[in-house]
Write a structure and sequence with these properties.
By secondary structure, this protein is mainly α. The protein has one domain: Nitrogenase molybdenum iron protein domain (Rossmann fold). It has helices at about 15-20, 35-40, 50-55, 60-65, 70-85; strands spanning about 25-30, 55-60. The relative contact order is 0.14. The model is unreliable at about 105-113 (pLDDT under 50).
């Protein structure tokens, strides 16, 4: 939809635009730092998104997805597959992605899924 518009290839998307589009899944990866899911959930309007409301906020460590090399093609893709399969309700082998990438649903805060 946005492909033909000016700036369609820019990497920065306004947080309000993300909230407006109501993502079903949010996958974070911050270079060299653990993703702060509470920061993501607390962005204005994001608590109303399906992803936050349904506990579909995940992390893929930057070493597996942001750095060039074989890990991005093996572990990174494997983790993305596991996260997206889980998000759409497919059975996922827990060994496919680290437990720490799963987010707790709001009613399960304090524990991991």
């Amino acid at each position: 939809e946005l492909r033909g518009k000016q700036g369609a290839t820019d990497r920065v998307v306004a947080p309000g635009e993300v909230a407006r589009r109501d993502p079903q899944v949010v996958i974070g990866s911050w270079c060299g730092v653990k993703v702060n899911k509470e920061y993501i959930r607390s962005r204005p309007g994001w608590s109303e998104t399906s992803a936050v409301r349904d506990g579909q906020v995940y992390e893929v460590k930057s070493t597996y997805i942001l750095q060039p090399g074989p890990a991005a093609l093996t572990e990174g893709v494997r983790q993305l597959h596991a996260i997206l399969a889980r998000a759409v309700g497919c059975g996922v082998d827990p060994a496919l992605a680290p437990e720490e990438s799963w987010d707790a649903r709001p009613e399960q805060e304090g524990g991991k899924r």
